[in-house]
Specification:
Elements lengths: L1 E11 L2 E10 L2 E6 L9 E4 L4 E4 L1 E6 L4 E2 L2 E2 L4 H10 L2 E9 L6 H12 L6 E7 L5 H12 L4 E5 L10 H14 L2 E5 L3 H13 L6 H5 L3 H18 L3 E3 L5 H12 L4 E5 L1 H5 L2 H4 L20 H11 L4 E2 L32 H10 L5 H15 L17 E11 L18 E11 L2 E5 L2 E2 L19
Bound molecules: N-(aminocarbonyl)-beta-alanine (URP) and zinc ion (2 copies).
Length: 461
């Protein structure tokens, strides 16, 4: 089966060019000047549209046990929503519970995802129990294609790791060439601020943000960087939200340290003002690190241009307002942390192109090419070139759309961007050569997505 995507503008991380793309089976057979291949079994007309490598969301949490409940998207609903929005690969987090093994955790996450994903997927591993066994098991995880390990300086008593535990895991990462991903917030100090707020009756959702000040993200980021320096470990700061943390990352990168960072659309577009919405509406915006005062946003956009921020992931971790976010009425510390976003990352970042914050090529780089390289998937993913998987998005930059919970496909009862009018929208999506979305309809299958055993990060070769 050969599909020709013709007359479009192919956009890769190195620029845009008028070209046709010939797909044969699951891969791209050729990228040619327009008209070289006049025929195929099926034709997708892309005049006036961009032809992009499928988006890679390197940070999602489907069915994640957290805050006494589970994130609301299953692998089936979450990957379907991802496909609707032009994301054709997710990397989700397997979560080690304390007292359990990493390998049993990995098996469990394979069981959840296998046969249930509309697009391809990989895993990172969350380490919440550092001991001799789990340190040794990191090696087996790497052999199984899971070579990035998330640790938490936040959430004492849940996922929190001490500096000593982080040091041990970092030493193992150095030994194996794997990556430590860090949730960098000073959870010990934050918990004191949270307890003081609750005790004095400051219980509304906005206090979630106020008790997690950016200084404590900056401090934890610096500490993680120093630990990485001492051990020689590569470090990837997840969901960076503040200029304080960005400054620490930029300084480390300037000295040549292998420190990388991602941010998320919510930190680029939403703010503490949203957390302060009345009538418990702010709970919809509770995530950690929290949304920051608006003036951090320009710094984050600058970080994306200077490459101190090199990836935008969603940290998709949806909890419904009803019954889930509501667990924290009267006590913000009981609101499950996390926001929905997997469906709209490509569209929201396209607004950055429309507003002149980033170039067209940079849009593709931060949403597809760099995550592919960072997490060992390139050039199978992240680029439109002969031999790559035919994960392709045909994107209409002139179309408009209004985001709403009434029309989105994520399994969550609100949109963080309700009523936002966006320029640009996904027109068609192919995953390994199969049309998953076109003509406003879903044509995919929940069993189509395959597990991706990943190579080590290609920024460390
Ligand atoms: O609030 C968040 N970010 N929830 C998901 C878990 C995490 O820390 O990434
Ligand atoms: Zn985190
Ligand atoms: Zn996360």
């Amino acid at each position: 089966m050969r599909t020709l995507i013709r007359n479009g503008t192919v956009v890769n991380a190195n620029g845009a060019v008028a070209a046709d793309v010939l797909v044969d089976g699951e891969t791209i057979a050729a990228v040619t000047a327009p008209g070289v291949f006049p025929e195929a079994d099926s034709i997708i007309e892309a005049a006036g549209k961009y032809v992009l490598p499928g988006g890679i969301d390197a940070h999602t949490h489907m069915e994640m046990p957290f805050g006494g409940t589970f994130s609301a998207d299953t692998f089936a609903t979450g990957t379907t929503a991802a496909a609707w929005g032009g994301t054709t690969t997710i990397i989700d987090f397997a979560v080690q519970a304390k007292g359990t093994s990493l390998l049993a955790t990995l098996d469990k996450w394979h069981e959840k995802a296998d046969g249930n994903c509309a697009v391809d997927y990989g895993f990172h591993m969350i380490i919440s129990d550092v001991n001799d066994t789990s340190l040794k098991e990191m090696e087996s995880c790497i052999d199984a294609g899971v070579n990035s390990f998330k640790m938490f300086m936040a959430y004492p008593g849940v996922f929190y790791a001490t500096d000593g535990e982080i040091l041990l895991a970092m030493q193992k990462a150095t030994e194996t060439g794997s990556m430590i991903m860090m949730h960098a917030e000073n959870g010990i100090a934050i918990d004191q601020l949270v307890a003081q707020a609750i005790a004095s009756g400051r219980t509304d959702p906005v206090h979630h943000g106020i008790t997690r000040p950016p200084e404590l993200e900056g401090e934890a980021t610096s500490r993680a960087i120093q630990l990485a320096k001492v051990t020689g470990a590569p470090l990837y700061i997840v969901h960076l939200s503040s200029r304080h943390a960005l400054t620490a990352v930029a300084e480390a990168r300037d000295t040549g340290q292998n420190v990388f960072a991602e941010t998320c659309p919510q930190y680029l577009f939403l703010s503490l003002d949203d957390l302060a919405r009345p009538d418990f509406e702010g709970s919809k915006f509770v995530c950690s690190p929290p949304l920051r005062p608006k003036d951090h946003q320009s710094d984050l956009w600058r970080g994306l241009r200077t490459n101190d921020l090199c990836v935008v992931s969603t940290d998709h971790c949806p909890f419904c307002f009803k019954d889930q976010k509501e667990l924290g009425r009267g006590d913000f510390s009981k609101i499950p942390n996390g926001m929905p976003g997997v469906e709209h990352r490509m569209d929201l970042l396209h607004q950055g192109v429309v507003r002149g914050e980033i170039t067209l090529a940079r849009w593709v780089e931060i949403s597809s090419a760099t995550p592919a390289r960072m997490f060992g998937l390139y050039p199978r993913k992240g680029v439109i070139t002969a031999g790559a998987d035919a994960d392709i998005v045909v994107y209409d930059p002139a179309a408009t759309q209004t985001l709403s919970a009434a029309t989105h496909h994520m399994n969550v009862d609100y949109s963080a961007y309700e009523g936002w009018e966006l320029t640009g929208r996904v027109d068609a999506v192919l995953s390994r050569g199969s049309v998953v979305v076109s003509g406003g309809e879903f044509h995919g299958r929940e069993s189509h997505g395959k597990f991706l055993a990943r190579e080590l990060s290609q920024y460390l070769n």
